[in-house]
Amino acid sequence: MPSSVGETLDFYMYESYYNTLRSECKTHQRKFKSRATLCSADGDYVYLLEGKMSSRGDTLCGMYKS
Question: Which of 43, 54, 38 is nearest to 2 (CA)?
Fold first, then answer.
């Protein structure tokens, strides 16, 4: 994540869903180009996610630097 105010970091997030029967998070191969900007010294971030999750996805996980 960005460490100084105003810094922006590009990364990828992967679509995932939580399987309640197995109590596990399953990650899909579908990834989204994302961007985070640190807005304040209090740790407030603004996130940009390009694209739309499928009907199976219920959360995003796995941040990787692009």
Answer: 38
